[in-house]
Amino acid sequence: MLVSRGPRPVALTVTACAALLLAGCGSGDEGPAGEATPTQVHLYGSDGNMQNSFAKEFGDQAGLLRGMKGTTPLTRLSEDFKQRLHRIDPKLSDYVYAAESYDAVAITAIAAQLAGTTEPTEIAKHIVGVTNGGERCDSIARCLELARDGVDVAYRGASLTRAGFTDAGEPSTASYATLHFGMDSQLDEGKTEFLGAGDESAASVQKPPAPKRQTPQVVRTSGAPLKLGGLLPRTGDLALAYPPMAAAVKLALKDVNDAGGVLGKDVVWIDGDDGTNPAIAKATVARHVDDGVHVIIGAGGSGISRAVLPDIVRAGVVLFSPSNTDAGLSTVEDKGLYFRTAPSDILQGRALADMILRDGARKIAVVARKDSYGEGLQAHVRAELERAGHGGPDQLKLFTYEPPAGQDAPPVDFTAGAQEIKQFGADAVLVIGYGESARVIQALAAAGMSIDQ
User: In 276-404, which ranges are E strands?
Assistant: First the structure.
């Protein structure tokens, strides 16, 4: 969600046989002529690890990803949008949460222009309204032009294409992509499929405050320039998702300022890292508050946003995440200051369960990092599998692991869990995590399970 840390040391012993599993070596039941047959499993992932940059977490074992499938919130992006992102970052290899990051900045800028002030609580009152009910506009420049004239707008952009936000300040509809790692351990775009989710009728119908037409007096008293602060995962286990998010933020800022800025001045960006770590994120939020930031774009992970929300509420600033998916954040106490362009994991849980069942899985193991994102999505997948009649103890087992507490913490050791999954006889394993979840997949291979390609 790469400024990659590079592969971390693996806290398990990978035997020569495990390293060659994909070539046909393995352990398990005796096959013809007394040869050992590895346990075959279908491997699945979610938005935290279904990215091209994930392969770098494996070092020389990237081949373990071949055949892995999964889902992520992703809109079918135009070639023009992709090209513009590549002009910002020519090394970009993924687009996960790029559209959502672009729209988070766009909606914030338009809301501030409509509010006629940089006061965070006033901006917050306009954010949901920016996406509903007004004159439709499909670009930052056009929306800002209308907003300066005091015209209410309904923004449609890179990720927000069908309907606006709910009263809770999140998308009422979403687009998901089903992704496949090919034989080169990179995502095979030719196999990517898109499906819509959500309900347009869930979009808010509440009227926002009346927009303020830009006048010299409004500009003088507005507090401009608008200051945005970054709280994206530049480092930590979610750093593999950082490049597309960072590129999209830069592109949106360029589009805003090329269109005349907000309230007569260019928007200012103050960078900051969430570190995929609550302590680092809290320190970044504190610095942003001291610097007079009005809206913070982030955090990357749902658990990090949960950790900093009390600080956000005390400071009276806005937190706007492009990538939080924890369903519980829809009802978290936020004093109306928290928003997201990423859809709830309730929708992704359905997409993942459907994908796994369509492949004919009989015994399913769901492994998740132990935080609000991992356990939340795991619970939604479980609920969907149970609803489909696939939740008995002989059909489904759940596992969690503690993610590393920091950059210098020991890596994940999933050796025992991998052995338990093998004994269970799973033919499908879903791994819900970030970059650190590579250790889980390596442990499965070391335990004698072969990924079915």
Answer: 295-298, 318-321, 338-340, 364-369, 396-401
